[in-house]
Specification:
Largest sheet: none
Structural class: mainly alpha
Order of helices and strands: HHHHHHH
Radius of gyration: 15 Å
Oligomer: single chain
Helix content: 55-70%
Length: 148
């Protein structure tokens, strides 16, 4: 595959960066934010975002065991706590939308672990990373590229 020759419009790039940054600040949990972004990027097969967010997660000290087992978080037992599992389930439900909506039980579980504001920020973060994933995959931007 070859990289597209057009660049991401500055306005789009800035808006997505601001959305992601605001969502992370509002969520208030940098490690969880990275786990969410990595999981969505795994599902969307976005190598650029995986590479970027794995690097950030490691710099923030996210447990290597969590990073290694993230793709199998549901079977990973106590590696992920209930709050992390609720966020990851919501991430998957919003990212995949298999049935065209987020199942009530997934949303309700997330709402037990996140207050209204934190849940809104979590959903904003999921929306932002899904947008980034689609843009980077669509443009075929390789890991580590500065051409975006």
């Amino acid at each position: 595959m070859t990289a597209r020759t057009t660049f991401l419009a500055d306005g789009v790039r800035c808006a997505l960066r601001e959305l992601g940054a605001a969502a992370k600040r509002g969520l208030g949990d940098p490690a969880l934010a990275e786990l969410v972004q990595i999981r969505a990027s795994q599902l969307n097969r976005c190598a650029f975002c995986l590479d970027l967010h794995l690097g950030i997660a490691r710099k923030q000290g996210v447990d290597e065991r969590q990073l290694g087992l993230l793709d199998a978080w549901e079977e990973a037992g106590e590696v992920f706590d209930a709050r992390e599992r609720a966020a990851l389930a919501l991430t998957e439900a919003v990212t995949v939308l298999t049935d065209g909506f987020v199942p009530d039980e997934v949303y309700e579980e997330a709402s037990r672990h996140f207050d209204t504001a934190a849940l809104a920020h979590l959903l904003g973060l999921i929306a932002a990373i899904n947008s980034w994933n689609r843009l980077m995959v669509g443009r075929r931007i390789p890991p580590g590229s500065d051409d975006w």
